[in-house]
Amino acid sequence: MEPTYAITFNRSSLSGRELEYIFRTMTIGQIAGDQTYSKKCHALLEQTLGVPKAMLTSSCTHALEMCALLLDLGPGDEAIVPSFTFVSTANAFALRGARIVFADVRRDTLNLDERQLEGLISPRTKVVVPVHYAGVGCEMDVIGEIASRHGVSVVEDNAHGLFGKFRGRWLGSFGCLATQSFHETKNITCGEGGALLVNDVRLTSRAEIIREKGTDRSRFFRGEVDKYTWVDLGSSYVMSDVLAAFLYAQLEVWQEIQARRQSLWEHYDRELREWAEGRGIRCPAVPAHCQQSYHMYYLVLPSAEQREALLAHLRTRGILSVFHYVPLHLSPMGQRMGGRKGTCPVSEQVSERLVRLPFYNSLSRGDQDRVVAAVREFRQ
Ligand SMILES: *Cc1c(COP(=O)(O)O)cnc(C)c1O
Prior knowledge:
Elements: H1 18-27, H2 36-49, E1 53-57, H3 60-70, E2 78-82, H4 87-94, E3 99-103, H5 117-120, E4 125-128, H6 140-149, E5 153-157, E6 165-166, E7 169-170, E8 177-181, E9 194-198, H7 204-211, H8 217-221, H9 241-251, H10 254-277, E10 290-291, E11 298-300, H11 304-316, H12 332-336, H13 345-353, E12 354-356, H14 365-376
Helix pairs in contact: 1-9, 2-9, 3-4, 3-7, 10-14
Pyridoxal-5'-phosphate is lined by residues 59-61, 85-86, 88-89, 131, 157, 159-160, 181, 183, 194.
């Protein structure tokens, strides 16, 4: 049986109006997708982020699959993804038959190492997928410059980075396409859900078709065609308005949620950074030109043994902390795609040494202080 923890790692948080909005979708009979609450979410994302088109999807994974379809990835093409990321970043492109080329990450931000990017580009490279780890922006000016010089598309996996900025510009507004996640573990959630942001307007109408099972149903509903039919490849990527209602209750108070998370993050940082750095433990690095999204707080221990010891130490105090990401190039699937030990050394090291501390919107100051105290009692 799973032990129960006094302080868990993640807990879904309500902002207050979720049930009221869900009740409204049901009473007005709008439970399929793209109705009142989806449209409110689309407008809020488009206006806040200044992106031309936002479309809710059933998940971030599905939004990434849409990107692979939109950019016509297929056998013979290559996609460059960081090894230190969630499987979907790679799987969405592998699913179309593309070869995955694993990039290592920077030691400081744990983001795709832009200094190694050019060396991984080949004539077959079609896309690079930077992931803004922990909501701290990748070096998007360098990545964008290299990609455009080689005719490679940039898709941002912005699952962690909603409402973060890089050099004053919103994360999710750099790539021709970007994806968001509203999974329970993310800052803003509806349980399971995501969004596709389309920055290159030439991709918009095909994105609508792919999202609607390969049909021109969206144009039909706008009255642009008098019947709708099968016009391209696609699948069922639309989010139900029941979930969009839940999501809107969170999105409309995004500034409060982000302020709450900022205060949690800063409290951990104030209480732990000096303690950690005196012991060779690294805290998150946030460059001055990055306005992060406060997605998580992590520690990188000096060794794998110490990481295991810290996780066990916290468990004995009733606190659930977790590690993050088995490097994809060493996963069974990654190895079948040619991944070899030693090729992404930073990802390999960090993955064995990283601890994520409990971090969720409703984490109380008292509980957070218990986590801080427990961490500070850890003897290496
Ligand atoms: C959570 C996450 C995803 C997948 O999100 P879903 O909405 O669960 O599909 C993809 N990429 C990264 C980096 C993530 O953290």
